[in-house]
Fold each of these.
Amino acid sequence: MSSRVLRKLQGEKELNEELSDPDPETDLPVTGGARRKQLNINRYDLLNQQSLSESEVKEDDNETEATNPRDGDEPHESVKRRKKKKKKKSGKHSSVQRSSEDNADVDEVERSVREVNRLLGENYVPGVSSGSSLRPDKSTHIRRSILTIQHKHLNPNNELKRIFGSKIIQSEHKRKMRGGRGHVKTTWLVSSKDNWPQAGKLGLSMSLIETKYGGIQYFTYEHSQNYRQIQNKFLEAVESLNPDNIVTIINEHPYHVDALIQLSDLCKLSEDLAMAAELIERALYSLECAFHPLFNIAQGNCRLDYRRQENRALFITLFKHLLFVGGRACYRTALESCKLLLSLDPENDPLAIKLIIDFYALRAKEYEWFIDLFTEWESTKNLSQLPNFAYSVAVAHFHISDGDLKKADALLQDALLMFPGVLIPLLEKCSVQVDNRVSNHSYFGPSAQSKQSPALTQLVLLYVNRGYHVWKENNLLPWLERNVHTVLDRVDSKDVIVKDFEAKRAKRYQGPLPRGICRHILISDVKGVSPLTEDFSASILSFDPLPPPDSINIYEKPKRPKPGTNNSSAVGIFFRSLLPSFNAADIPEQLLQPEEDGARALPGGEINIADDGNDLRRSVASLVGAMRDLLSNIRLPDVPNEADVDENDDSEDDDEQNNYLT
């Protein structure tokens, strides 16, 4: 046999001895065929082997030297077997056992991941600011860290699981998923439902306009040519004052945003809150599907210009959505939606989210976050000049005081001194009887409310009617009573700060309410609060209430056709008044003209027909408003159409609308 063949056989034998790991208790001879099979099996184990670094070799040598064999007759064999077992164990458990250098690499990666998460705000730590070079503007970083969002809290089902238990929510979800559609786009704000139509090309898109200093990115929505045609048809349907035209548009285009908003308000007017909330979710889903890839709602650095007509739909829809979600006691989800809305335009706040974010922060027990928001924004936003913030920040300090109430007492006393008109209505809403000293004192008595300006009265009523639930806790009312008497003592002792607060109230809150606050009141629809819209003569549209004066429009409002004699009766005006876009100024003049005989019969000499017409118009508007309120309180049974009934739905779905509280 040649030497080349001998060397080949000898090398194969040595290689087989290195790779094979026979059982130490059974050293049986292996044939050539078995040797090839062993090679084929163990060949892939080499992929799991890791090359040893110098430090690992030293560690291995130290371990070998420290571990001496007990049996002195076969030291070489025991060391050899130990090394073989160690190699095999390292190959099988390489993903679990790591060397010191691997752990160092993993620690470095984990530190990098934690740094990125901290910069992106995944885990927000109150009071911690970063000095990273990625945030050159300190104020911008603080504002972004305050407004960063945890997307897991945007799903109300996660909060419902914490409230009612995961088993109940999962079983309900599985029941509704029977016979569901295939794969749909994953979204954060809302999830597509099985009874929704398949979403194709919606005609909505989003583009990046610019990126400013500090990483602030400005986006805008864009409408395709087809979507613009649909929008023009929708505007004509609104001007026609016929709800059937809006329903026709939704049947043809089930994801048209403004039509869904308009129909949702009609469903809300008829007390079908479940359908109203679902229509808003569908509109929000349509808007979210059009997000730009760089439009990350969790970072808090994405902006939308409210002046652009295309962008307002996201503001309006998201606001209505958080109101429905908050009505289901999902306060943390509503809070995250408020943060998202505020991050879209924190400088202008076109929907006055600052008037509602305190309520959801307290209900969600996010006290420290709310205090940080107040601390960081007080110097630039003057949040203490809003009644809701003045009282709510005191409540937040009370909950985290841990027995030390000095800070909470000082804040509550300042709020009572600055806004004394809040106390009596708040106690009445909480069904608390006011003692004689408070009710008879001039500082908190009826004169305190009469001295308020109309604008301040609206802010006070909005806070009281929305936030009185927070004050119904047993430990808050005794604390409030104690501080009220302390404030009265300071007033009786002629404290200087009392005069300062009176001067501030007399100087501020004068004139009409800003348009942003009026929009907030209109959309919120809080019982007992109505906006003062004397300065807004145009009709108010629910899908775009009170657009800004410097609005950037791509659509022109179509001219409303003049009503004929058939639909100019009082009955026709009443039914048209049911639409949210109704405007009393559009009442036909012929209905407002008094008859000549009646005019001559009235005493008082000369009659000003123009003034008489204005008075009659106001009377008709008041009558129509009263009839709308009367109709809204009538609950009619909902009879679903056969086409709207799902075969998989159980009778339990009938109670779904009760989840939405008003």
Amino acid sequence: MSGLDDLLAESNDRWSRAMRNAQDVKDLGLGQAVRTYYIRYFPAGVLVLIVAGTALGLLLFRGNPSAWPQYLALGLVLAAAGTVIGGLIYNAKKVSPAARLPSGDILFPLESEERKQINRQIAGKAPIDREHLSVARAGAVQQRKGLARLFLLMPSNLFLFASLTANWAGQAAPLAWLMLAAVAATITGMVFLIRDFRRAGRFLTTTPAF
């Protein structure tokens, strides 16, 4: 029995440390911060950068009509760079303060299977463990913050792949098709990010805070 007692003691110790990490963790408006970025700042910034890049392309290529894919490609490259810079700044100024979290990983004390079980609860794929609900809720906040940061930065990949698609359009090599596939993969990844972000938010709204 001593072996079983030792295992239980180790498990209790892990969960106790995780529960201490979870103290005072709170989502202070991550969803609103992300919505504000994509409604207010992202569309205007992307439009300005694409137009500016296209105008720069016209100057570089001296208005050659046959070079229009290069004009567009340059605008998309500027949009890619701008979304990285703007996303990082917005993340630091608005997204990070919208979540109260410790500096380290909340779930670090837990074993791999225990962390997976927490993630399954957040995704709605496992029954809620009421005894350790505070850890699961804190894990959901931590997950949403990480997903929000990715969601701000992923459009840069989309614009970069789109610029390469435009640059190689009409060429015999299948590079444009490969980049178009990369664009589709990036869009698919963003859809999954949105799904997971909303799932974690739904978990927080449907479980009581302690």
Amino acid sequence: MQQLLACNHQKTSQLKSLNKTILTRIMSSTFASDLCYFPPLVLPATPTTQVKRIFLCRHGETEPNARGVLQGSGIDEYLNAMGVEQAQHLRDCLASVKVDLIISSALKRARQTAEIVKEKHPDIQLLEVSELAEISWGKWDGQIEADLRILLNRWINGDFHAMAPRGESPFQVEARAVPAFYNLMLNRPETNIVFVVHGRLLRIMLSSILFQNLNHMNDFTHHNTCINLIDVSIESDLNHIGDKINIDLTKLKTPFNTKSRKPVLDDNVVIADTPAIESPPELFEQSGCILDSSFESAVPTVVHPACFTLTPLLLDDRRHLTPRFQ
């Protein structure tokens, strides 16, 4: 009887040890990366089509993010402790993914996040691209109380020339960032590329490259270290270049519901919940913002190459983060 009890006790101990090992493995970076499932690569449409996979990620949290202040290109801070931990989760998620190149903006928060991701891919290049910097909020950088609702209303109503005092407009950001993105896609040989950039920049870029306008930029959300997965098909034979595909973002696994999402300037900044009404021009001018009265007839200057077809597979994906980060 004693031998039987001893045997059962030994088996129980072994089972507990096995469960502990499994739990440790689940929490380890090597196994956690398996939990980040990504859809298969889009198949080339023709023999002359090249498909590249890009991961458009936002940087980890900084102290200005934690304080809920506007953080544009005029604020250049490193990650805080939570931001570092978020970046480590992103690193572990991408550890088992084939990565040929990592690209970041020149701002410290993006560069630091990219360097942490690179720890699992030590042999690949980390390329810094200054054109991928965050929008400049000008005099509003670092502020909590600014005329944010006024500017947001102008953007909602289609005035993409509007900007914060001494800042940048969405059209200006699009004009520097989107051509840089297309040039990287066309001229770099790598096919699996991780971008680590910024929230408002991602809103502008995704609206521009997916819809060829900025009308949808306020429909996107980008939490710290989120992943936007897009497959980029590049057709080299002009005879195969046809009409652009229709993009239905409502079918993505990551929700894209423009009706239920409250527009914001920055995903870490809370704006007073006031009615989104048209602001009088005189009030807008008093705020120090720049108003272009001819914006309704303005045409963006960005040229979208006809050889590109972009297929979004995930938006604002945060499965790699624990619940306390989400």
